[in-house]
Amino acid sequence: MGYRMVFKSRRKFLQELAFLAGSAPLMASFKSSCSIPRIGYLNGAGLPEHDNAFIEELKILGFKDGDNIVIEKRFTRPNTNDTVGFAQELAKMDLSLIVVSALPFAMEVRKANPEMPIVICTCPGMVSNGFAQSLEHPGGIYTGMDELPAGITSRRLQLLKAAAPDVTRVALLSTTPGIGGHETQLFEGEKTAPKMGITVKPYRASSLAQLEKSLADISADKIDGMLNFQGGLSLANRKLITDFAAENRIPAIYQATLFAEAGGLMSWAPDLVQQFREAARYVDKILKGTKPGDLPIQHPSKYFLSLNLTAAKKIGLTFTPDLLSQATKVIP
Length: 332
Hints:
The protein is an alpha/beta fold and about 325 residues long. It has helices spanning about 1-35, 50-60, 80-90, 105-110, 150-165, 180-190, 210-220, 230-235, 240-245, 255-260, 270-285, 310-315, 320-325, and strands at about 40-45, 70-75, 95-100, 120-125, 140-145, 170-175, 200-205, 225-230, 250-255, 265-270, 305-310, 330. Strands 7-6-8-9-10-11-12 form a seven-stranded mixed beta sheet, sandwiched between helices. The longest helix is centred in the first third of the chain and has 34 residues, at about 1-35. The model is unreliable at about 1-35 (pLDDT under 50).
């Protein structure tokens, strides 16, 4: 009797041991899947240097996509309605947060799911668009980079005037979405332009058709200078804008180096690649327990002057030695 009980207990023990051994991989897999954070990433197509910077910085911080983090990536095509669909798709997923490259994406994600934390790589007006109570103490579930420090519009007008002293009527071409970004820059431009002997006139567009009309209006109005307030629309159509300026011999300054690289005259711009790296650092802190609203919103730490010599030649300009000495990048 005792022998049979011992045998039965031993057999039961071995059965339980075999069950546990067989289920161990499943349990480990379940534990692993539950512990791996999932985040969303929404950007426009055609900017791999930004995407690569974000992924590389995450790797430096210890996160490898598909290993200890899952990144749901979506890339919108220029001049389409992809933004709404992709934002809604990501917003409905079980994600820790969503990283968006710019304000239009953030607005659509927030609309689709107001409870989804967001890191914004570059935004004209975090406070004015309701993503933060203040830059120092955002509160809530959003944080990121704000690209409009005080004085930036005035500085761009000064640089444009230095490159093209005869400019007197400057178009402020805006594809900046949301609230505040356009208005802030327009107000600063209207306030400071007269001191430089300049008058400014705003032109605003939120679609490709409106952008094309604004460019036609600038030409018809005999404008002799242009400052482009950057938005996703103008970034996607930067070749259209820079070609227009060259064909109409209009000196123009832009808010991203990509415009100067696409044939634009000049840009006074932050390092967008660095801002995507900063976004990865925000993600690292949030995934390790810091609340987004406790992470101060940053302005770009530095702005860089890029000058395009070919673009200058096309419109009959020569950059002064002083301006060339200030340039971070001179494009042949």
